[in-house]
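Tokens in:
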């Protein structure tokens, strides 16, 4: 695996290999010294054009636990804020000895451009680009689901499992990547949102669409993934009548959570709008695996860095 730009870069077996490797990486977290020498001497650059807490820290922790050097590069306060081009920034990082670049941008396609423009020949990992994709978030979500819903996770997929994804589908790169990955792993996915928050062309996605969360829950689910309503992307408004109306129809209340099967789990990529899209009692309740998602993110991103930097080298053997 040279780059990870989109879930489309993965075959079903590729995805399972990444999840299986993450399972091995997770075992290191119970050790007194939580480090592997896998990427000694390598340098990973976090190139973040967009604010992030969980994703940036997760990639930083993943690189450090693989013994790589990490450089955190923020667009704010850099030459990018003075008008430097993405190309010149990439060439600068390459000249400084970057072995892999993790990029997060508000512009869809930024990671693809870095990987394919011919400016540099280094692995690129997409940490979220605009409203396009967020492949490592989807992988950590699938990893979390597999741990809770599948016995004997190594080598297995999510065949037969039903996942409901609820909220701002239109602006969500997490939803796009999850639909692709979960369906690739055999799960059936139902998107639930107000009509104005369903993307044009969703009919071509490998999923079903519903405008009623209650109806989707009534059909049964193994997991419900709530998404943040991204107000910062809702230019002009008019996507739903009021916050109260949205919460009543599409929020995961305690009553709705109680109607889920006993084994069902609740996910959220964060940050959460408590009391709006998800009740605090649900977010902190026994069904919630939200904190676990954050922890699993480190293991999954260790696996991704391993696969793009070490899996096909002599050091891996």
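Residues out:
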């Amino acid at each position: 695996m040279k780059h990870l730009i989109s879930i489309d870069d993965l075959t079903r077996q590729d995805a399972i290999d990444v999840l299986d490797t993450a399972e091995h990486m997770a075992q290191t977290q119970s050790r007194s010294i939580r480090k592997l020498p896998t990427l000694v001497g390598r340098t990973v650059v976090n190139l973040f054009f967009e604010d992030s807490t969980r994703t940036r820290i997760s990639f930083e922790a993943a690189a450090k636990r693989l013994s790589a050097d990490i450089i955190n590069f923020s667009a704010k306060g850099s030459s990018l804020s003075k008008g430097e081009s993405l190309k010149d920034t990439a060439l600068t990082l390459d000249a400084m000895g970057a072995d892999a670049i993790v990029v997060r941008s508000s512009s869809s396609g930024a990671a693809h451009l870095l990987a394919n423009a011919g400016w540099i020949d280094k692995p690129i990992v997409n940490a979220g680009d605009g409203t396009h994709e967020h492949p490592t978030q989807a992988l950590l979500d699938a990893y979390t689901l597999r741990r809770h819903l599948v016995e004997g996770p190594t080598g297995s997929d999510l065949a037969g499992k039903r996942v409901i994804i609820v909220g701002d589908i239109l602006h969500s790169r997490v939803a796009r990547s999850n639909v692709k990955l979960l369906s690739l792993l055999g799960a059936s996915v139902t998107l639930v949102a107000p009509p104005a928050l369903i993307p044009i062309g969703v009919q071509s996605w490998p999923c079903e669409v519903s405008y009623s969360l209650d109806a989707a829950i009534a059909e049964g689910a193994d997991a419900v993934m709530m998404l943040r309503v991204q107000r910062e992307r809702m230019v002009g408004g008019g996507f739903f009548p009021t916050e109260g109306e949205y919460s009543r129809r599409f929020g995961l209340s305690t009553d709705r959570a109680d109607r889920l099967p006993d084994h069902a789990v609740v996910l959220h990529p964060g940050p959460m709008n408590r009391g709006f899209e998800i009740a605090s009692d649900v977010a902190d309740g026994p069904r919630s695996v939200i904190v676990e998602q954050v922890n699993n993110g480190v293991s999954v991103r260790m696996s991704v860095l391993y696969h793009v930097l070490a899996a096909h080298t002599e050091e891996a053997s």
